Amino acid sequence: MKNRVLLRWFFPGITILMFVSFLIALLQDYIPPNIYELMSNVTGTLSFCIMLTLVIISIRPKAIERRLGLTEMYEVHAWMAMALPVTLLIHVGIRWSGLKNVTTLNLSNTSILGYIGLIALVVVMLTGIFVLSDTIIKQSKKLMQFKDNANRNMHLWLHRLAIVSVIAIHFHVYQVSYLTENIPYRFLTTFYTVTILGWYLLYKIRIAQLPKYKVTRINKPSPRIHEIELKPIDGQRMNYHAGQFGFFRFIDSQVSSEAHPFSFSSAPTYHQDSIIVMIQEDGDFTETLDQVTIGDKVTIEGPYGDFYPEEVRQSNQPMVLLSGGIGVTPNLSVLREEIA
Ligand SMILES: Cc1cc2nc3c(=O)[nH]c(=O)nc-3n(C[C@H](O)[C@H](O)[C@H](O)COP(=O)(O)OP(=O)(O)OC[C@H]3O[C@@H](n4cnc5c(N)ncnc54)[C@H](O)[C@@H]3O)c2cc1C
Question: Which CATH architecture fits 212-339?
């Protein structure tokens, strides 16, 4: 429990570390002319550090996900993203001149790249808050209705403008007059940006190269449940533990190729050469699953999660498994593994 609280601070901790290193670089050879200028510099830098950390979270680092959990990671992402409008508003709005330039579209005395980064970021924040996550809006029925009716796939693409925003802001730093001589600050900007975007790019390449599976069996145990069995096309089935989950992409199929998380209902020892998922129709994507046919191609990103941890797997103690509705899937996997 205590560990989990500490882990919740892992990503904010990365932001703080980057921010402190930037501050040291910033203040070593620059004395801000007044407190407003200092505030503007500090909040601009902090915004950039938050953005870079959010890119790291979107890579879903497995080592952290396994300990913190996917839902918690998404929540940390949402709460950190909530800090952005505040820090950005202070950065741009200091002495109101920045905001005046935005409203009058007078970009002559400010960096155009800063504005490109800002506009992209506003789109990213709106899609994140109102469509992709319910952390902030779950208290409002109307907003939840809006979220349910919105086109998630389109908003997901718009959300990826975050990368455009990071690149624009990286070059914005190079245009800021008081930073042109500050080599350590510029070095840190490039170092963090290249490292984190490079990691993001590697993650995307890995996703594109994931081994392919094909649908070999489809069963409907009840009208709204689809049980789908997948077998690897080349090579081995993915290694996983009972109770884990993966992100499934139907890459060659009538249905959308957006990644969706589903628990494995198969068990690694019991189902040696296949992976089975049981999916309940719940919305835009899952309600199209009737269009999936035998032979459709799928990739699986993962495994993620630690529902059935090592110490429980090794123990001979009796266990009680509780689940409701489609939440039975990881339990099925554990039960099948236990009898294998
Ligand atoms: C770790 C995990 C394991 C899961 N295991 C199963 C399972 O074994 N069987 C099963 O039927 N369902 C499972 N789900 C739920 C399943 O992922 C969602 O029902 C499905 O993604 C909904 O997509 P939709 O477009 O049909 O519904 P929508 O109506 O668009 O969304 C319904 C809800 O699912 C969330 N959601 C939608 N798309 C995604 C996405 N791409 N990634 C993450 N969340 C999304 C939305 O925030 C929304 O609240 C699991 C979810 C998680 C997080």
Answer: Beta Barrel (2.40)
pLDDT bin (cut points 50, 70, 90) of residue 273 is very high
Q: Is 293 helix (H, G, I), strand (E, B) or coil?
A: coil
At residue 9's C-alpha, the angle toward residues 57 and 305, to 5°, is 55
Instruction: List, chain by chain if needed, residues with CB within 6 Å of any ligand 1 atom.
Output: 70, 134, 148, 152, 245, 258-263, 277-280, 282-286, 326, 329
Q: Which pLDDT does position 124 carry in this prediction?
A: 95
Task: State residue 103's pLDDT score.
Answer: 63
Q: How far apart are CA 73 and CA 7, in angstroms?
A: 10
Residue 140 CB: number of other CB atoms within 10 A?
12
pLDDT digits (tens, 9 = 90+) for 212-221: 999 999 999 9
Using one digit for the tens of pLDDT, what is the confidence trace for 68-121? 888 889 889 989 999 999 999 888 887 556 566 666 666 555 678 888 998 999
Nearest protein CA to atom 1 of ligand 1, as residue? 261
Ligand 1 centroid distance, CA of 188 (Å)? 38
Contact residues for 228 (Cβ-Cβ < 8 A; gap 6+): 215, 217, 218, 219, 276, 277, 278, 279, 289, 292
Domain residue ranges of the chain, discontinuous segments joined by +? 2-208, 212-339
